[in-house]
Amino acid sequence: MTVAGFQQALADLVAGPEVCRQVRAGADVAAVLPGCDLDDRVRERLVAMVRDRGMTANCAVYRSNRLTPLVLNLPGTCSALGSDLHEVLDRFWAECPTERFDHFLIEAERFVSFLEAWVREELPSAARIALGEEGGQVRRRLKSTLTAS
Amino acid sequence: MAIGRRPLVGLLYSSAAPEVLDACPGTVELHELIPERLFYDCGPGRGNRFHWVEGALTQLESYVDATTVAAHGIGLSLPSDMPLDEALLDVIAGVHDRLGFAWYSEHLSSFATMRSAVPNAQAGLGLPVPYDEPVRQLVAEKVDRLRDRLGVRVLLENPAVFTPVPGCEYSEPEILDELARRVGARRPARPAQPLRQRAQRRRSVPQLPRPHGPGQRVRGSPGGRIRPVRVLQRLARRPDAGRGLGSGIRVPPAPARAAQRRLRVPRVGDRPPRGTGIIEELGRIRCIVDTAAPVGAPA
Question: Nearest-CA distance from A45 to chain B in Å?
Answer without folding.
Answer: 6
